[in-house]
Write a structure and sequence with these properties.
- Helices cover 81% and strands 0% of the residues.
- It is mainly α and 113 residues long.
- The two termini are 14 Å apart.
Length: 113
C-alpha cells in the first residue's frame, strides 16, 4: 500500500496507518495461524485413524487408535504447539508489515525487496 501512496492517503485523512493496517493484520494472523495448527493436528489424527482402520495390515479400530493416541500425546504438548504457532504468527505478521511499510520505488521496488 505504500508503493501506491495509500498509506500517505490514510495519513492525509488523519487515520493512523499503524492502527488501521498493522494492528488488524496482526490480530488476524495471531488468531488464524493457531486455528490452522489446531485444524491440521485434528486432520492428521483423523487421517491416521482412518488409515490405521482401513489398512488390512494394521487393522487398528478408531477407538483403540485414539485411546493409544491419548496415552502418547500429552495435553501440555498440544498447548505448547498452539503457543508456538501464536509466537510464529506474531513474528510473521511483524516482519510482513514492516517489509510492506518499508517498500519504496513503485512496482520495481516490490520486486527488489
Amino acid at each position: 500500500m505504500r508503493v501506491y501512496q495509500e498509506v500517505d492517503a490514510l495519513r492525509t485523512m488523519n487515520i493512523d496507518p499503524i492502527h488501521y493496517l498493522v494492528c488488524r493484520r496482526m490480530l488476524a494472523i495471531a488468531f488464524a495461524l493457531p486455528m490452522l495448527v489446531v485444524f491440521s493436528i485434528l486432520v492428521g489424527w483423523f487421517g491416521g485413524a482412518t488409515v490405521a482402520d482401513l489398512n488390512n495390515h494394521m487393522a487398528i479400530p478408531f477407538q483403540e487408535f485414539f485411546s493409544d493416541l491419548r496415552d502418547i500425546v500429552r495435553t501440555q504438548g498440544r498447548g505448547q504447539r498452539v503457543f508456538k504457532s501464536f509466537c510464529f504468527a506474531l513474528i510473521i505478521g511483524a516482519v510482513s508489515c514492516h517489509q510492506g511499510l518499508a517498500t519504496i520505488g513503485g512496482p520495481r521496488g516490490i520486486g527488489v525487496r
